[in-house]
Design goal:
The longest helix has 17 residues, at about 135-150. The protein is α/β, with parallel strands linked by helices and about 325 residues long. Helix 1 (about 20-35) links the parallel strand 1 (about 10-15) and strand 2 (about 40). It is elongated. It has helices spanning about 20-35, 45-60, 70-80, 95-105, 125-130, 135-150, 165-180, 195-210, 225-235, 260-270, 290-295, 320-335; strands at about 10-15, 40, 65, 85, 110-115, 155-160, 185, 215, 245-250, 280-285, 300, 305-310, 315-320. Helix 10 runs parallel beside helix 12. It has an eight-stranded parallel beta sheet with strand order 6-5-4-3-2-1-8-7. Strands 9-10-11-12-13 form a five-stranded mixed beta sheet, sandwiched between helices. About 40% of the residues are buried. It binds iron/sulfur cluster (SF4). Iron/sulfur cluster (SF4) binds next to loops.
C-alpha cells in the first residue's frame, strides 16, 4: 500500500540491465535484505519488457516499470506483472496512447506514477515560467493528472523531483495543499553518496516531518543498497520507523578519555543488522554521558580507559575500555 495512511515505504531502482534477469534478481534480493520494499526497473525497449516479465515472475518485491516514450512498453509491463507503471504522460505520445496505457492498468488493477522532473519539464511550461519553478512542476503534475482522470483513472501517485532541494520541497508543499493523491518523494540527481544523502535527508526528511510523503526514493550515484540504507536512516531520524537501533553518541571533546569515535563506529557496525527498536547511547564522559546513557535502552558513559554501562536507566557495571563493546552487545542481545 502507498498512501491512505500506510507506513511510508522505501523504494530504489535497479542499475542492472533489465535484460539480465539473474543479475537483476540478485540485486533485488540485496535490496530486499537492506530493507527495500518497492523496486523500479527501466524498461527502455521490447527486450527489456520481456526481461521485466521474467524478473517479475520471481521477484520477492513489487516491481515498478519505468517507461518513457513508448506506450506499448507500458502495456507489456502491465501484462508482464508490474505492480505500478511510472510514466510521464506528456512524453508517451498523444491522448489515445495514454488512454491505452490507462486501460491496461485498469485491467491489471495497478497504479500509475506520474513522474514530473524539473530537468524534463514540458517546453510550454518552461516558456510560461521561464525556468523550472514550484508552480511549473505542480502545473505539470495537474495537467497529467487531468489527462488520466479524463479516462476515469484515479489510482495515481505523483512525484515532482528536482536536483534543487528548496525547489522540490516548495513543489511538494504546494501540491499537497491542493491534492490528496499519494506522493512519491525524492530529490533527483543528488550526486555521490555523501552529498546525495545530505540533500535527500534535508529534502525528503524535511517534507516527511511536515507529514508530506507516502513513499520515498533516495537517489545516489552509488550502489542502490546504499540508497536503501540512507532511506531507512531518514525514516528513523523522522521518527517514522522504530525498527533497528538508533545510536545516540556525543561529538567528543577535551573531556573524552577513551577512543569514543572508534567505539561508536564499532557499535554501529555491530548493530547494523539488529532489527530491535532500541536506542543505544555511546557517550564520552560523565558530564552528559550518564544522562543520555540512562535514557537509552543500553548506554555507555566513558571514563578513564573504562566506562559504565546503563540498561534502561539502571547502572549495571563498570568495565575496562576493551570490554565495553562485547558487554554492550551482550546486554542488547538480552533485550
Ligand atoms: S558527553 Fe562528555 S565527552 Fe562527550 S561531548 Fe559531551 S562533555 Fe564531551
Amino acid at each position: 500500500m502507498v498512501g491512505g495512511g500506510a507506513p511510508v515505504s522505501i523504494q530504489s531502482m535497479l542499475n542492472t540491465k533489465t535484460t539480465d534477469v539473474a543479475a537483476s534478481l540478485d540485486q533485488i534480493e540485496a535490496l530486499r535484505r537492506a530493507g527495500c520494499e518497492i523496486v523500479r526497473l527501466a524498461v527502455p525497449d521490447e527486450e527489456a519488457a520481456k526481461g521485466f516479465a521474467n524478473i517479475a515472475a520471481k521477484s520477492p518485491l513489487p516491481l515498478v516499470a519505468d517507461i518513457h516514450f513508448d506506450y506499448r512498453l507500458a502495456i507489456a509491463a502491465a501484462e508482464g506483472g508490474a505492480s505500478k507503471i511510472r510514466i510521464n504522460p506528456g512524453n508517451i505520445g498523444g491522448e489515445d496512447r495514454v488512454r491505452r496505457v490507462v486501460d491496461a492498468c485498469k485491467m491489471h488493477h495497478i497504479p500509475i506514477r506520474i513522474g514530473v522532473n524539473g530537468g524534463s519539464l514540458d517546453p510550454e511550461l518552461l516558456k510560461k515560467y521561464g525556468h523550472p519553478t514550484p508552480e511549473a512542476l505542480v502545473e505539470s503534475a495537474f495537467s497529467h493528472i487531468r489527462l488520466l482522470e479524463k479516462y476515469g483513472f484515479t489510482d495515481i501517485c505523483v512525484s515532482m523531483k528536482s536536483s534543487s532541494v528548496p525547489l522540490m520541497m516548495a513543489a511538494y508543499r504546494l501540491f499537497s495543499k491542493q491534492s490528496d493523491y499519494p506522493l512519491h518523494v525524492g530529490v533527483t540527481e543528488t550526486g555521490t553518496e555523501y552529498m546525495g544523502t545530505i540533500k535527500s535527508a534535508v529534502g525528503i526528511g524535511g517534507l516527511l516531518c511536515e507529514g508530506i510523503g507516502d513513499t520515498i526514493r533516495v537517489s545516489l550515484t552509488a550502489d542502490p543498497v546504499r540508497e536503501v540504507v540512507a532511506a531507512r536512516s531518514i525514516l528513523k531520524a523522522c521518527g517514522l520507523r522504530s525498527e533497528g537501533v538508533n545510536i545516540v553518541s556525543c561529538p567528543t571533546c577535551g573531556r573524552t578519555k577513551i577512543d569514543l569515535i572508534g567505539l561508536a563506529n564499532r557499535v554501529e557496525e555491530a548493530l547494523a543488522d539488529c532489527k530491535k527498536p532500541l536506542t543505544v547511547a555511546v557517550m564520552g564522559c560523565i558530564v552528559n554521558g550518564p544522562g543520555e546513557a540512562r535514557e537509552a535502552d543500553v548506554g555507555i558513559a566513558g571514563g578513564e580507559d573504562c566506562g559504565v554501562i546503563f540498561v534502561r536507566g539502571e547502572l549495571r557495571e563498570k568495565v575496562p575500555y576493551d570490554e565495553l563493546l562485547p558487554t554492550l552487545l551482550r546486554y542488547v542481545e538480552k533485550l
